[in-house]
Amino acid sequence: MARQPTEKQINEAYRLAKERYAGLGVDIEQALATLQHIPISLHCWQGDDVGGFEDPDAGLSGGIMATGNYPGKARTATELRQDLDMAYSLIPGQHRLNLHAIYLEADTKIPRDEIQPEHFAGWVDWAKENQHGIDFNPTCFSHPLAADGFTLSHADEGIRQFWIEHCIASRQIGAYFGRELGTPCVTNVWIPDGMKDTPVDRLGPRQRLRESLDAIFAEDLDPAHNLDAVECKLFGLGSESYVVGSHEFYMGYAIANNKLLCLDAGHFHPTEVISDKISSVLTYVDEILLHVSRGVRWDSDHVVTLTDELQAIAQEIVRGRFLNRVHIGLDFFDASINRVAAWAIGTRNALRALLMALVEPIDQLCDLEANGDYTGRLALMEEAKGLPFGAVWDYHCLQQNVPVGFSFVDAIREYEKAVLAQR
Ligand code: RNT
Ligand code: ZN
């Protein structure tokens, strides 16, 4: 294992880094004060490969897939909360939880169109104890009525109605979370609807989806309790040729109906990035939801690493002063590595990218650009990449009482031995 820096070394490195940044006009203390209050919504589904607790035998479907069989996955809500507690203890700051409807707790199997707030009371108690806000998602996949690849846009009215009822119930549960926890729940609708091969009728399912969404959102809910988001996608496994809820579809819907648009980093053409979409979309909608993820070839859900695109997303949020209009959620699932580590690695990276964006010499870069000095702009951007950012991040972790550097992996290994290996 790597030798850990002492507290004295971390503080000293931070002092020098702060001076270096101050020379460029960057206020490091301000940056850390901002970072400390940015919540990231951790997605519950990394903890059990998107299984949920509705039916232990149900398989994952809907064009998404978790691969790997790393031991120790959570089998109950209690185990999942225990794993989440562990993950949060490794991440600086106070963060949210993003729940899916199939993570309900009930003694009997509850049909999706009959889910109630009471089925999520255990999550609320835990969230209150640990000061987590909760976000929510109807689960329109992994279900017999979604087996043929269509839900809200299904040609069969009865099936469509079933999913509409599920989404209406989900919004009510979102509002319950918001009321109970004093922070609005973002309830995000994502459906897998699409086709493996070229459809003849691309329009019909989209018209039906639009009508279903109108029915779902018919009741106005207090935005202090629930905010509605809709998530687009380009293709999935088995829906390679056509996805009903495309980017253009939901962008239009969100603008026309004042909804949040959810941009998932893995849901576009492999060379297309969401960082460039943020300022465009926020020109027309009030708020957006991000699913911070990483696409690799056909999979849109790899653990978030500190890529150029992750940094570009964070830069856009910070440079555009969009922090209060962007809800940051994560969306990846990897069953081939320790699942708690996946949360910790991905969330720490999202925060590191935000911190890197917060310590950019933005004022100077803006001046250079405004003066047409693109040479200076490029030179400073590149120099900024080499500034002692790591010293600031280490100090932040120390201040927030979470492991500094690689040592968070030691904590995970101990947890794996003591808890995960016993399951
Ligand atoms: C699927 C979407 C969606 C899901 C979760 C589980 O491609 O990204 O957000 O990952 O709802
Ligand atoms: Zn997503």
What does this structure look like?
The chain has a single domain, classed as TIM Barrel. It has 14 helices and 12 strands. The chain has helices at 7-22, 28-36, 77-88, 121-130, 157-181, 203-216, 247-257, 275-281, 308-319, 339-358, 362-370, 374-384, 389-399, 407-418, and strands spanning 40-43, 96-100, 134-137, 185-189, 194-195, 226-231, 242-243, 260-264, 288-292, 294-296, 299-302, 326-330. The strands form 3 sheets. The chain has an 8-stranded parallel beta sheet with strand order 3-2-1-12-9-8-6-4. Strand 1, helix 3 (77-88) and strand 2 form a beta-alpha-beta unit. Bound molecules: L-rhamnitol and zinc ion (ZN).
Question: Structural class, please?
Answer: alpha/beta
Number of strand segments: 12
* Rg (CA only): 22 Å
User: How are the strands ordered across the major sheet?
Assistant: 3-2-1-12-9-8-6-4
- Approximately how much helix is present in the residues? 40-55%
Q: What's the shape?
A: globular
Q: What is the name of the CATH architecture?
A: Alpha-Beta Barrel
Distance between the termini: 26 Å
Number of helices: 14
CATH class: Alpha Beta
Q: Supply the CATH superfamily name.
A: Divalent-metal-dependent TIM barrel enzymes
List keywords for this structure.
single chain; 423 residues; alpha/beta; TIM Barrel; two-stranded antiparallel ribbon; 42% helix; globular; binds L-rhamnitol; binds zinc ion
What is this structure, in a nutshell?
This protein is of the alpha/beta class and 423 residues long.
